[in-house]
Design a protein that fits this description.
Elements: H1 2-11, E1 56-61, E2 66-71, E3 78-85, H2 91-95, E4 103-107, E5 111-112, E6 117-118, E7 140-142, E8 145-146, E9 155-157, H3 159-166, E10 170-172, H4 176-186, E11 189-195, H5 216-219, E12 225-227, E13 234-240, H6 245-252, E14 256-262, E15 276-279, H7 290-302, E16 307-310, H8 312-321, E17 324-341, E18 347-359, E19 367-373, E20 379-384, E21 389-392, H9 407-426, H10 436-441, H11 455-472
């Protein structure tokens, strides 16, 4: 198992971490490890930290209204997709959720920042205790009022200080009620944050659509990494499309060691070494991940192992099954969305963050709806009629949010344990537990993920990579 995984991963990595990375559209770049003792991990590009800016700030929606406010984050101009969340708490978790990559997050809660930003402390499994990823993921932040003075026992800095350190612009003093009303009526829209400059209508052409970019490739690990569990003997392969820390914690805390693979890794080639496969959340349009969909199709054709997907992972599972996905008008981003379990008739209050959904009418006969959204009737889950495969659009791990549906991890891992026992009957010598050597060689956190940046910068980097590739050819 070790030789196949390491060999396969090594064959897909860049020649060396000191070589410049070439970024091409829909093509992942890779980092590698130079030796084992000591192990040297690739270093992502540094975040462009700036002092906190208190300049004039403008939030502009393309072909829509312009809102003037005050900056409290980095002095940086960006564009992205403007979306809103009605969550009352959990802004550190939301802003570090990789699913928000490329988006300008508008908070409907009037006051944000009053309990500050916690430290980057890690738990006993090496996972971030208070964040969902190591960096702030949203492209920009928009609030009605920001608390510059904070109070909480875990806080070490203010929201403004954090945004400035991460190079993310933030705007306060705008009418978020008017913004959200517009987004609900017109749908999620492209927008810009401009710091310290007057709005120029001629700049409208500078709006960049993040849907042009494969955002999953920006947030997925560039090489496998491993998180061990000391309480169980199952081993799950996680397809990292932008996995949240609490998803990993929910698996590891229930006794499953996890090995996370890049989003486009051919998982079907190594799945037989594991007891189950899990597909994580992530940003953007699921149809960009065609390689992932193909590999999942091959996996379901060649293996009977349990599979679970969350959010984007749920959508990719549906695409692999032959269904279609649709873009919602303004998505669902909140901690209080009701989802009905169609198998039991019970309603669960769920945490959600997505702009796309599965079109349940396109599911093949071997699949059925699992959950449905009681607000807009969109699909919230699918399940195979005869195999241990299911996905949920909402987040059962819920950081932050309610824990009504966390039992789904138990359901999944029970099927993983059953599969492991059944395989041992046919292969008594089979051992899916990670070897000590594998644990030692693989990184313990995601590898080579570049921190967030504005959509213009991402597109510029990709275009530069394409030009470089064309010259080389």
């Amino acid at each position: 198992m070790l030789s196949r995984i390491v060999k396969s991963a090594a064959s897909r990595l860049a020649p060396g971490i000191k070589q410049p990375l070439t970024l091409t559209r829909y093509t992942r770049t890779f980092a590698t490890v130079e030796g084992n003792t000591p192990r040297v991990q690739p270093t992502p590009s540094p975040v462009k930290a700036t002092p906190i800016s208190h300049d004039r700030a403008t939030f502009t929606i393309r072909d829509g209204p312009v809102f003037n406010g005050k900056s409290f984050g980095a002095k940086s101009n960006i564009s992205g997709e403007a979306v809103f969340t009605t969550s009352l708490v959990g802004y550190p978790e939301s802003l570090t959720d990789p699913s928000y990559r490329g988006q300008i997050l508008v908070f409907t809660q009037p006051l944000i920042g009053n309990y500050g930003i916690p430290s980057a402390a890690r738990d006993e499994n090496g996972l971030l205790r208070y964040f969902e990823s190591p960096n702030l993921q949203a492209a920009g932040v928009v609030v009605a009022d920001v608390a510059e003075q904070y109070s909480h026992w875990t806080a070490v800095k203010s929201l403004g200080e954090w945004c400035a350190e991460e190079g993310v612009p933030a705007v306060s003093g705008v009418d978020t009620r008017a913004i959200v009303t517009y987004l609900r009526e017109q749908g999620s829209s492209l927008a810009r944050i401009t710091i310290g400059e007057e709005y120029d209508q001629d700049q409208d052409e500078a709006f960049v659509d993040p849907e042009q970019i494969n955002l999953v490739s920006k947030v997925s690990t560039k090489a496998p990494f491993h998180v061990s569990s000391s309480t169980g003997d199952t081993h799950v392969a996680v397809i990292d499309c932008g996995v949240k820390e609490n998803i990993l914690r929910s698996l590891v805390g229930r006794g499953a060691s996890v090995t996370c693979f890049p989003y486009d890794y051919p998982i079907h080639k190594v799945a037989h070494h594991f007891d189950g496969v899990f597909i994580s959340n992530g940003p953007g349009d699921p149809t960009h991940c065609q390689d992932t969909v193909y590999h999942l199709q091959r996996l379901m054709e060649s293996s009977q192992m349990p599979i679970m997907g969350i959010c984007l992972g749920h959508q990719l599972l549906a695409l692999a099954a032959g269904a279609r996905t649709i873009k919602l008008k303004y998505g669902n981003r909140a901690h209080n969305i009701p989802a009905l379990d169609l198998t039991t008739g019970r309603c669960h209050i769920t945490s959600q963050n997505h702009g796309y959904a599965v079109d349940a009418t396109t599911l093949p006969p071997s699949w059925k709806e699992f959950f449905v959204n009681l607000n807009d009737s969109s699909n919230e889950g699918i399940v195979h009629t005869s195999r241990p495969i299911f996905g949920t659009q909402f987040h059962p791990e819920a950081r932050g949010g309610p824990l009504d549906s966390s039992y789904l991890f138990d359901t999944y891992l029970e099927s993983v344990s059953r599969y492991k026992r059944s395989q041992s009957l046919f292969q008594p010598t089979r051992d899916s537990r990670p070897s000590p050597l594998l644990v030692d060689l693989l990184a313990k956190e995601r590898v080579g993920v570049v921190p967030t940046t504005g959509m213009e910068n991402l597109l510029r980097m990709e275009q530069a990579g394409e030009r470089a590739a064309a010259r080389a050819a």
